[in-house]
Specification:
alpha+beta, CNF1/YfiH-like putative cysteine hydrolases, three-stranded antiparallel β-sheet, two-stranded parallel ribbon, globular
Length: 128
C-alpha cells in the first residue's frame, strides 16, 4: 500500500488537472478492493502510517492476532479523495471475500494456491 501512503491519489488528481480536468467536476468511484474485515496488517505497517500522520490511527482497529491490526484502506481512500476536494463513492466490493467475482492475491496466498488472476482499473477524461 505504498501508493496509499505516498500520495498516488493526489498525484493522479494533479495529473488529471494538468491535462485539463476541472477538479470540481472530478468524481471518483472506489471499485473492488480489500475491506477492513479482511485486511490484517502487522505493527510495522501501522507504524509507517502513523509516522506519516497520527490521524491515520482511525483507519486501524485491533485484530484478534497480537501485534496486528485490521486496516480500512477503502475508508482512507475515500477520506483522502474528500480532502483533495473530490466527490467519491465506495461501492464496498471486497476482492478477498467475493471470490466468485474477484481475484485476490491475499486470498490466494492464504490458501497457498499457485497463482491468482489479474484485475484492471481505468481512469478516463471525457471531453465536454
Amino acid at each position: 500500500m505504498e501508493g496509499a501512503l505516498t500520495g498516488v491519489l493526489e498525484n493522479t488528481i494533479d495529473a488529471m488537472v494538468s491535462l485539463g480536468a476541472d477538479r470540481a467536476r472530478i468524481v471518483a468511484c472506489l471499485g473492488p478492493s480489500i475491506s477492513r474485515r479482511n485486511y490484517e496488517v502487522g505493527a510495522e505497517f501501522v507504524a509507517r502510517f502513523l509516522e506519516k500522520d497520527a490521524d491515520y490511527a482511525a483507519f486501524f482497529t485491533p485484530s484478534v492476532n497480537e501485534r496486528h491490526a485490521m486496516f480500512d484502506l477503502p475508508a482512507l481512500t475515500i477520506k483522502r479523495l474528500g480532502d483533495a476536494g473530490i466527490t467519491a463513492e465506495n461501492l464496498d466490493l471486497c476482492t478477498y471475500a467475493d471470490e466468485e467475482r474477484f481475484f485476490s492475491y491475499r486470498r490466494t496466498t492464504h490458501r497457498q494456491e499457485p497463482d491468482y488472476g489479474r484485475q484492471i482499473s481505468a481512469i478516463s477524461l471525457r471531453e465536454r
